[in-house]
Amino acid sequence: MAGRIPLLIHATHEAGVKVGGIGAVLDGLLSAQAYNEAVDRSILAGPMMGWDTTQMERLTTPRNRLTIRYSSLHGIFDNVEPSIAQALQAVEQTYGVAMLYGVRRFGGNDHEVILIEASNPNMDPINRFRYFVWQHYGIDSSRYSHDGEFNLYFSIAQPLFAALKALQVDADLAPNDRFILAHEWLGMPLVFAAQMNEPDEWRTIFYAHETATARLLVEEHEGHDTRFYNALFQGRTWAVDLPTLFGDQSHYFKDPIIRQALRCDNIFAVGDLVVDELRFLGGGFRTAPIDLVYNGITVDEITLPARLESKRRLQKYCERLLGYVPDYVFTHVTRLVLSKALWRDIRVMEHLDRMLGEAGKSAVLFVLSTSVPAGRRPEWVRAWEAQYGWPIGHRSDNGDLIDQEISFFFNGVEPFNRSAHNSRVVFVNQFGWSRERCGERMPEEMEFADIRQGSDLEFGQSIYEPFGIAQVEPLNAGAITCVSNVCGCVGFVRRAAESAGLDPATVRNMVVADYVSVPPEHPLNTPWEALGIGQGTRDWIESINSYGAAQRIFERLPKTHAEIETLIQSGTALAEQMSWDVVVRDYMVPGLERARR
């Protein structure tokens, strides 16, 4: 491993509380032994949502493992040196903000946290900062000031940088020894602040957990991934970039911000397609330094008896809900957003249902996803369970189903369950996976780990998925994972297979469903032809290729305990080559070192 990194600032919206994907990345990264051996001091810098009671409760709950050393909102001032407290108070007064400084524990390691609450900031320094950004980066804040998220991250950037200076975190460090890692566009304003206040004195890296412009274009058009990636691939052949094909995207404030990643010393991308998407932005991105830094997974040793016990609990839950013990348990643990393409699960299940019937087998698919990340009140769930059999039955007039849950259940789950003969889909739209959270019919001994290590098949056929940690988490428990070919984890699994001495073409743990490639009898010859792909073409390709995915899944479903054991062994071999230690050692640290040159 290369030389140590004395200081690494993680600029991220999940600095204080884990909310989503980047929070999962931070959990894995900052817990990894290889990371803590490579980095002397890490500080997470981001916002504090003082106006959001739920977020503030999550911030201080013992599960968040946060120790507050200084917080004007919490009345804590005495856990730092008096000179530091005075310096932090001066920052608060200058910028009209509140501040929290403390440590969060990740695994067995403590890392510092600086959070800024800016609900009523002093606008004078913020407006000067915005003028600097317009003058040097061409980002016109007045054009985007209607967006609360944009305003927040431009409001906290200067006080965050001032807080870092007040803490003297970079004292006696050379520019090559202090790094700011901007996790997505939300971290870039802190990069701008560093470049404004101390030009050329910090090494900066943009960490692309996605390409926001690409996500927008995939999600907003009914052709989704089928249209966008065919346009990208053809555009690469024809040397045509995204603005030429799709037009100027500066109306979307994230686009001009991520284009400033070119001002950083390096760019990290979490997946092979993210690299392609960034190159597709055109201009300097065609030749910019971009390092692949995949997401990692946590590797836990799973024995066959433990795997079977978790599956037994899931089978027991199915029996209590539906009256039968399934031969196979399928799962999909995900956020309920358009990009996850839950309708594709139904398409594959339609084919699998017939295949299962021909073999005299049965299955259940548990979809654990919700539009309410904090979850429903457990007493409400128990009432719905008693009244109409939740989660088999759902209603949309009482707070049970909301937003995209309504469409998924009534247009996907219910029609499938009415027509299927050998399988059912159970939609559990509740945060948590326990009897306490999910009702009396869930086995008392059930734990969240059971849905990860008791599954025979995990779905994840997204239309946009820069990496896909959730899809590969069950690998080392011997699950088969079915992903779309636009999932960033596909490239890492292939590399991991080669590192583990396995043939990527014969590894049975992953089924890749291709919803992008058009049939050879209908070739695309130009990127402009790809732009004509709409829902009809995408539906047609999904109907064809979902059958192939189902066929490969069915062929690989284990029929004996010995076959499960084989899947556990190969899945564990893959997972070990995809661990966070591997990511840090083989991908991140070399990328940090390149930023020093």
Compact overview of the structure:
By secondary structure, the protein is of the alpha/beta class. The chain has helices at residues 21-31, 33-38, 53-60, 82-95, 123-137, 141-144, 148-166, 188-197, 212-220, 224-238, 242-246, 254-258, 272-280, 304-322, 343-358, 378-388, 404-419, 435-438, 448-453, 469-472, 489-499, 527-530, 535-556, 561-576, 580-596, and strands at residues 5-11, 39-47, 66-71, 98-106, 109-117, 178-183, 203-208, 266-269, 290-292, 328-333, 363-368, 423-428, 457-460, 480-484, 510-513.
Please give a structural write-up.
The protein is α/β, with parallel strands linked by helices. It folds into two domains: 5-135 and 147-211 and 257-296 and 582-596, Rossmann fold, CATH 3.40.50; 304-577, Glycogen Phosphorylase B (Rossmann fold, 3-Layer(aba) Sandwich), CATH 3.40.50.2000. It has helices at 21-31, 33-38, 53-60, 82-95, 123-137, 141-144, 148-166, 188-197, 212-220, 224-238, 242-246, 254-258, 272-280, 304-322, 343-358, 378-388, 404-419, 435-438, 448-453, 469-472, 489-499, 527-530, 535-556, 561-576, 580-596; strands at 5-11, 39-47, 66-71, 98-106, 109-117, 178-183, 203-208, 266-269, 290-292, 328-333, 363-368, 423-428, 457-460, 480-484, 510-513. α4 packs antiparallel against α7 (148-166) and α15 crosses α23. The longest helix is centred in the C-terminal third of the chain and has 22 residues, at 535-556. The radius of gyration is 25 Å and the shape is globular. The two termini are 16 Å apart.
